[in-house]
Amino acid sequence: MAKICELCGKSTVSGNSIQHKHSGGWMYKAPKTKRTFKPNLRKIDVDIEGTPSKIRACMKCYKKLKAEQE
């Protein structure tokens, strides 16, 4: 199952992990390796047009929904 927020569409993105401390001083470029950034998802119960259903939402969307309910 894909890690995608069903409200805003936030998904996994890729980037570089940079190791700043390495042997040889600053003679060489800092080594980089590929890594992934995954969204912080949570399954929540939401009423969509009167029917309760479970969706996956990122924490930013979850906090917005929670603030609207209060």
How would you portray this structure in words?
- It is built from one helix and four strands; from the N terminus they run ββββα.
- The chain is of the alpha+beta class.
- It has a single domain (1-18, 31-70), classed as Roll (Ribosomal Protein L24e, Chain: T), CATH 2.30.170.40.
- A two-stranded antiparallel sheet has the order 1-2. It has a two-stranded antiparallel sheet with strand order 3-4.
- The longest helix has 11 residues, at 59-69.
- The mean pLDDT is 88.
What's the short story on this structure?
This protein is of the alpha+beta class. 16% of the residues lie in helices and 40% in strands. The protein has a single domain, classed as Roll (Ribosomal Protein L24e, Chain: T).
Features:
alpha+beta; Ribosomal Protein L24e, Chain: T; two-stranded antiparallel sheet; two-stranded antiparallel ribbon; 1 helix; 16% helix
Order of helices and strands: EEEEH
CATH homology superfamily name: Ribosomal protein L28/L24
In terms of DSSP E residues, the strand content is 35-45%
Radius of gyration using CA atoms only: 19 Å
> Could you describe the largest sheet, including whether it forms a barrel?
2 strands, antiparallel
Q: What is the CATH C level class, in words?
A: Mainly Beta
Helix fraction? 10-25%
Please state how the strands of the largest beta sheet are arranged side by side. 1-2
CATH fold assignment: Ribosomal Protein L24e, Chain: T
Please state the average pLDDT score. Answer: 88
Number of beta-strand segments = 4
Label the structural class: alpha+beta
**Uncertain segments:** none
In whole angstroms, the N-to-C terminal distance is 32 Å
Continuous helix count: 1
Number of domains: 1
